[in-house]
Fold this sequence. Notes:
Number of domains: 1
Shape: globular
Structural class: alpha/beta
Radius of gyration: 20 Å
CATH class: Alpha Beta
Distance between the termini: 29 Å
CATH superfamily: Ribonuclease H-like superfamily/Ribonuclease H
Amino acid sequence: MPRLAGNLRKHFMAGSQDNVAYLVFDVETVADGDLISRVRYSGEGLDAQAAIQKYREELLEATGKDVIPPTFMLPISVAVAKVDDHFRLLDLTTLDEPNYDPFQITKKFWQGYMHYRCPTFVTFNGRGYDMPVMELAAYRFGLSLPRWFNVDARTYDQSRNRYNHKSHLDLMDLISNFGASRVTGGLNLLANLIGKPGKIGVDGSMVQGMYDDGKVNEINDYCRGDVLDTYFVFLRTRVLLGLLTLDQEHEHVEAVKLLLEQQADQSPAYQNYLDHWGDWKNPEESAS
């Protein structure tokens, strides 16, 4: 066995499912048409699909986009990567597979957070979208989250404080200096800068249509890809902060590639990701 493969075996063995320091996650949502009908079109007798369509048309006319606000959305896919305190990927899963029930997804998400003793959430624009969706879903479904809604703690120690990166590290906030600049191109651009696939034929604007066509598995495959991109961007920010060397980052990246290759036969999402895989070129090595 080549040395690299042997090192990667040791890499995986060194990680422990009990040592989950980070939860890297992404959420895909669909509109709650019944809620839209009740709240926005009370008395009009619109069914769920008609209410969604009418609201999207109104948004498109008013804003040029038909993106429904997260307050009217339900989680239909949540992919979560468990990462240890050495930034090694331990596992990547989609919640409540294969049923993908919004209540069970929400319940398992917050149960996982508590089970692993409140790790750091890692997202891209999660503070603006993913986390509000999961918080409002918890409200909707009657879940109790005192460790997350610790509003009596000191301001900085509150889990939901925007600048408490030990509780929630939003990579868009980090890159943009908390909104002082714009990350034009988003996660897709940041992934491509380091040779990773980014968006592969699907983006968030297509999820509602995919759901309406019964393509829930494909939505969850897409969500897995977004989490992989987020994890690789997270690794590069650890280099940026001086917490990883480039060699250590490379080892983590190669370990995940091996894991994807081992599971590609059972996962179309991973095979698709590998088909679009790119390796980051170190300019120091290219110049030599």
